[in-house]
Amino acid sequence: MKKRLGIISLFIILFIAFITVWNYSYYQGQEEAYIPIENNQPTPIIPSEAGVFERSKYALDYTKMPVDEIHQRTMKNYYDNRAFHGAPPSIPHEVSSGERSMGENNCLKCHENGGYVEKFKAYTPVTPHPEKINCRQCHVPQKTQSLFKETNFKRGTIPVVGTNNALAGSPPVIPHQLQLRENCLACHAGPSAPKEIRVTHPERVNCRQCHVPNNKVTEDIGNFIRKIEN
């Protein structure tokens, strides 16, 4: 008798399981078919242009910010803090000399989004590459007043603001290389941007749509051929 009840119970459980699976399959079949979207961004971005959009979320904020006429940076300040055109800016304030690998949060606390610093009476420049966290690999403290002596070193040709348009009325070209400087709004928008290059339309976040690099920044000297002396 017990064996017979066990077999009947097993069949009842199997029947209930069959009804449950069939019912689930039936309702699942009523749903509309769909194709999973694997790429949420149908238009691929060229790697050299990906950084253009890094600070685009702040574009509208920049348009609403009033201009601080008293504490504006200038291109002279910009280049005085660089050994030559294209060089990484030096660190104009004290840093811990023992931390050669200092970076990440130590620097990004101020330089990721900028802001006014009362101690220096200036706005903190925004880094265009916050993903590079070992800041001291390229940026060094200023030692011009104690270590180095004046030499005949030339900084090279510095681009002049407002004279690099291909045609009259056309958008200015980009007079510098894009490596590590793809993030346009970091230098060209906000209160820390030098007033000469502060863009009037930060809300147009696709800068490379109108502004193209100047391919004559570097001079092509051809292939190097070693001379063989007889």
Notes on the protein architecture:
There is one protein chain. The chain is mainly alpha-helical and 230 residues long. It is 25% helix and 2% strand. It contains 6 helices and 2 strands, in the order αααααββα. The protein has helices at 2-30, 47-50, 59-64, 75-80, 105-111, 184-188, and strands at 116-117, 122-123. It is elongated, with a radius of gyration of 30 Å. The protein starts with a helix and ends in a 42-residue tail after the last helix.
Strand content: under 5%
The spatial strand order of the largest sheet comes to 1-2
Mean pLDDT: 81
Secondary structure tally: strands: 2
Kindly report how far apart the N and C termini lie.
112 Å
Unreliable stretches covering 5 or more consecutive residues: none
* Cα radius of gyration in angstroms: 30 Å
Shape: elongated
DSSP helical segment count:
6
Give helix and strand order, one letter per element, not per position. HHHHHEEH
